[in-house]
Amino acid sequence: MNDTLEIKREAQLRETARRLLEDGTVGYIIGWGTTRFEDKTAPLFAAKPEEADRLVWNEYCINSLAKYSLDDKYPEKKIGICVRGCDSRAVNRLVNDKQIERENLFLIGMPCSGKENSVCEGCSHKNPVVYDILIGEPVEENTEEKASAERFREIEEFEKMSPDERYEFWAKQYDKCIRCYACRNICPACSCKECYADQYMVGWQGKQNNRAESQVYGLTRAYHVGDRCIECGECERVCPMGLPIMRQTKKMLKDINDLFGNYECGVESERAPVLGEYDLTDRDEFM
Amino acid sequence: MSVEKNWEPKIIAFTCNWCTYTGADLAGLNRMKYPENVHLVRVPCSSRVNPQFILRAFQKGCDGVMVCGCHPGDCHYATGNYFTRRRFMLMKRLLEYNGIDPQRFQARWISGSEAAKFRDTMTQVTAQIRELGPNSKFQEKWYQEGGPENE
Amino acid sequence: MSRTGVIICHCGTNIASMVDVEKVAEEIGKIPGVVYSVTNKYTCSEPGQQMIKDAIEEHSLDRIVIGACTPRMHETTFRKMLKGTKINPYMLEIANLREQCAWVHTDKEKATEKAISLVRMSVAKVGSNKPLFTSFIPIHKKALVIGGGIAGIQAALDIADAGHEVTLVEREPSIGGKMVMLDKTFPTLDCSACISTPKMVDVSAHPNITLKTSCEVEAVTGYVGNFEVTIRQKARYVNHDICTGCGLCETKCPSKISDEFNQGIGERKAIYKLFPQAVPAKPVIDAQNCRKLNGSAKCGVCQIVCPLQCIDFEDKDQLITETYGAIVVATGYELIDWTKLYGEYGSGRYADVISGLQFERLVNASGPTEGHILRPSDQKEPKDVVIVKCVGSRDEKKGKSYCSRACCMYGAKHAHQILEKIPGSNVYIFYMDVRTPGKGYEEFYNRTREDGATYIRGRVAKIYKEGDKLICTGEDTLIGKPVTVKADMVILETAMVPARGVEEIVSKLGISMDGDHWVQEAHPKLRPVETQTAGIFLAGTCQGPKDIPDTVAQASAAAVKVCGVFSKEQMETSPMISRVNEEKCCGCEFCVKCCPYSAIAMKEIDGREGNRKIKRMVATVNSGLCQGCGACTAACRTGAIDLLGYTNDQILKEVDALCL
Amino acid sequence: MLRYAYYPGCSMDSTGATYKKSIEFVAEKIGLDLREIKDWNCCGATAAHTKDEMMALALPARNLALAESEDLGLDIAIPCAACYSRMKYSLHAVRTDEEKKEQIQEIIEMPYEGKNDVLSFLDIFSTEEAMEACRSKMVRTLSGLKVACYYGCLLSRPHEVTGGEDTENPMDMDRIVALTGAEPVDWSFKTECCGASHQVDVPKEARPLLDRILRNAQANGAQAIVTACPLCNMNLDMRQAEINEKMEKKYNLPVYQFTELLAVAMGAGAKEIGLHKHFFPAFELMKKYAKRAGENG
């Protein structure tokens, strides 16, 4: 990240934030703020104009902010949210799933040239796909080849292993899972009012923390979000036990691309999820 | 894992009431014979089968799971099996990706008049599962009998 | 704790011969919750059913499992039986021990073991069955018929005669459709107007029928018994209440427009009656071509001459919304536009190459030539006429792949009319096959040949003009030689295609079309006049090419279906439909997209967010439309929508019971 | 810019002599720059594809590859209908069938991507630019002369390969000829077969094919026939006298290439474009109708 450009962008962000808060277009702004550690930032809720200066913009702004709007679905005033490429796709995801109203949000577009996060390596949308105001100049996107090569590289390598090896790998991973549901809480595609795992449905999802139940939970969540995942990598980042969750959900996306044509979630806000529609020309393997 | 001496494969088949279930009844009427290992669960349409039922079936101890419905275009509810096709093409690959042998989960279109096809499918699937042996993946039972300790 | 009664049926020897029924009853008896487990020789018989009723009383059972033949056989029988007891008819599960166990296995010991697990699955499922009650939806006993051709007219008359109110909607200024354009009808050659105009008059005179011409269906919502239909009454600029149809305005109107009723032969005025025997027999003004209305001139002469001042140039379209219980689609057909497909026949450049309907107007006494067959180019009577069949039909490359069924017969009819009206004329009919599938059809075809029509087996390759003759070159496959006929006039019997604009009507009604845009019937053989949507029926050529006898038969069939719907005050709907748990529903609409019957709608309900009252959207299932397929349940991540009778809990209980 | 790669083909220096002369005259007049492909080879015409499909595709492909290798990005203009048709087949194969493209490039040992288009002379003359250029160069008018435009079979068929807009009633040549003041008649045998090489080996059976073309043209008031292909021109021109004699007909329809009409209208002398070289006398009719612009007929 060349620093001079980003520092200028941070200043412009603060100045814009102050103006928005002063003239009342937004109730409050969700951005990133400093924490005790220099190499970490945390979500910041700036409500008063003077708090705008606490907003930061550096390579450690990695938290996804879009899903906080779910906690305030019926705001009096618009909610300002700083959106990088992935956050803007998360907003599209939530709007497409009818969970938040686009009019309730004021999106501050932040062109992002990559953060201290492994997922930024193959990022295909550095510039926000939807915003109300753009801070600074858009950055140069990854080339088409680089982004698409990077996208499923991990999955293709994993598929080369034999079925038993793959089972052993996943069994080990799900042994570690402590069912804290952090992956569900951060995921913009997981927007159900009451998650099936929290409900008292005996035959459906057991509560015991053993390998079989964790496997069923992991696979079910992968299947639930598979056709709507925006590949932001947050689930993997927040998992306390370090499970490679993206490697599970991206498998679905890879299959969808192979079977139903290229497909990227959250880029256009209208695109219906693949499992919500059908096509007469779909391949037929079950004859 | 010692193979139990008189192990019999346990196969569950979610069958759509208007086509495959009718086909099974027709196979019965014609006294066609097929192995006893397959148990049919009657559902109104193959699109009623939630992919999560498959995971539960494996977890509870099934060795093979099938989803059978009408041929695309013949669905009594017009578009039901188009959704089934998409859902289970993806779920089948996800299961294989997680190490389940491809033959343990199969989906088939069997119409109400294809009694012979029903019998042949059931015989073929039972033979394939018997050859694969008992399924130990995803099994709750494995964990209840000591699980990681006896690995 | 549930008190389940289990009855294992011998079914004579069908089950007992391969399954040890006593052992099954005994094993199942051990399951907690099963308080009564017996076998019975013939459970579906009267004594068998009585035994169950007595057991329910004696052991105060609250749910029943019967191990017997396939539920598809006796599920309804046993449900009717339970109606007579205190148990809800849906607290019942049937294990298929005959077709899917006894008859298909050979090893008695294994068959018995399987029977036990099948019954155990049913017992587990019945454990979470809940009493279900059929719901009722009101039926508005008023029918809507879309399309005023012979199909729509016949359906409307039949429904009205059965004592129900009918609204007949026709977008043209008069009803009659294509049939009233014809001169004669095969095979009896009786005059088409003589048999259709009386029916048209009956329609306008019938107390139960409201006739709405120059109207189109704007929007349709709702479901069987309660269709909310908005109809657009297009502006007619003539007040039909006062107008007596004297026709003075028509004579004075200066503009001349190609007459679409006469298929472009001859002209009509801007203010016009579609044809002399039009019903209603009152003119309308064609806004595009009326000089005053399209602003090209001052005119307004019709308003001046009209004795009763019926002309009103300020007339606007009006929208009327009414509720109907059932809808009959009778939108009819059109002829394919061959000029865009057949460059070999001159693609319309030669005036004397005409379509079947154009010939009907030439030979029709009320047509532009008062029944004299005069060829359009120079009004001369043609001596040699060529008729070409299957133009656009049975031709995948250029036209439609299907056969249009009626052209062989009306081709022979045209030949007959020419030979009769023009003495000394010659008629050559190029055909691939002659299809005469109806009563008296083959005899009519033979009589036409005896009258002197020459049938040449082969397709016409090219028609071109030389001098004032039309040269038809083709091949006679029977003698294996190319053939050339010098004709004065050529009639092309073109393919039938769905009426213009059928796509909009079909999408408004939410029904479906087949590949060629014919309206899709529920089942080609067993339910030809119904659609997938309850309460919407079909009649006539909108469902596919057919002749008048079949059309009228279908129209009456559709009418009876409508009367079937209206025969009950309320309509009982199946209780095994989806239901939404509004507490869990987050309004994501994934279920809405999967419903084949668009039975799921979103509705606004009150909710709380923290301490504030808010409104939020949840899904709701329309019990009239939902057919209980369950596609929505698999689409719902939280399991908020569930299918009664096959709930997630019930199915998973069966899975668990199998794997014990 | 009216600049094209140019593939003359074998008939330009033989049966198509008048076609070639009139093309050169008109091209020079309207500034049409035709760059002949160096080292071009025979297109295979009707002989190649009866023998072997790959040969039939590779022969024309080599010419197209040569044109492409000069990477001037020029489309290829082809006067003769047969060469045009064969080139179109190769272009279609290379653009739609990966496997065939590999085989072709292997045979001609040259890369060929099918970047540029293959155009007949009717295509290039019916462009707005060419029409405007011709209109500005007219010095004579042929008004009153009724002609029947004959397209032959290969220029418009098969539709999937040539992309011609109307295989039954094309109008390109009619529009071009109308520029000279001549009046194209509406007739029905524009694209019917002229018998091509059958006129050589089975003249007796093939003669009626020519007869019906001439008859329909005359019946619809044409005084001459205009073609855009050396072979059709030769068949109709050379064999008309034979038909008059053998089938007792009285046809008097000189046969011109459409570029000859353009040349005459642009002031060409009879010798310059070889009007005397026709089999069926064609000079009198042209002399009768070719009037200085402004002279009344």
From TrEMBL, chain A:
Residues 167-198, 220-249 form the 4Fe-4S ferredoxin-type domain. Transmembrane segments: none annotated. Pfam families: Fer4_8. One of its GO terms (molecular function) is iron-sulfur cluster binding. Coiled coil: none annotated. Keywords: Iron, Iron-sulfur, Metal-binding. InterPro entries: 4Fe4S_Fe-S-bd, 4Fe4S_Fe_S_CS, Helical_ferredxn. This is 4Fe-4S dicluster domain-containing protein. It comes from Parasporobacterium paucivorans DSM 15970.
From TrEMBL, chain B:
The keyword Plastid does not apply. Residues 11-133 form the F420-non-reducing hydrogenase iron-sulfur subunit D domain. InterPro entries: MvhD/FlpD (IPR003813). Keywords: Iron, Iron-sulfur, Metal-binding, Oxidoreductase. GO terms for molecular function: iron-sulfur cluster binding; metal ion binding; oxidoreductase activity. Pfam families: FlpD. This is Coenzyme F420-reducing hydrogenase, delta subunit. It comes from Parasporobacterium paucivorans DSM 15970.
UniProtKB/TrEMBL annotation, chain C:
The keyword Flavoprotein applies. Gene3D superfamilies: 3.30.70.20, 3.30.70.3270, NAD(P)-binding Rossmann-like Domain (3.40.50.720). SUPFAM superfamilies: 4Fe-4S ferredoxins, FAD/NAD(P)-binding domain. InterPro entries: 4Fe4S_Fe-S-bd, 4Fe4S_Fe_S_CS, FAD/NAD-bd_sf, HdrA-like. Keywords: 4Fe-4S, FAD, Flavoprotein, Iron, Iron-sulfur, Metal-binding, Oxidoreductase. Its cofactor is FAD. One of its GO terms (molecular function) is 4 iron, 4 sulfur cluster binding. Residues 234-264, 281-316, 576-605, 617-646 form the 4Fe-4S ferredoxin-type domain. Pfam families: FAD_oxidored, Fer4, Fer4_7. Belongs to the HdrA family. PANTHER family: COB--COM HETERODISULFIDE REDUCTASE IRON-SULFUR SUBUNIT A (PTHR43498:SF1), FERREDOXIN:COB-COM HETERODISULFIDE REDUCTASE SUBUNIT A (PTHR43498). This is Heterodisulfide reductase subunit A.
TrEMBL record, chain D:
This is Heterodisulfide reductase subunit B. GO terms for molecular function: oxidoreductase activity. The keyword Glycoprotein does not apply. Residues 4-87, 147-237 form the Cysteine-rich domain. It comes from the Bacteria. Keywords: Oxidoreductase. InterPro entries: Cys_rich_dom, HdrB/HdrD_reductase. It comes from Parasporobacterium paucivorans DSM 15970. Gene3D superfamilies: 1.20.1050.140.
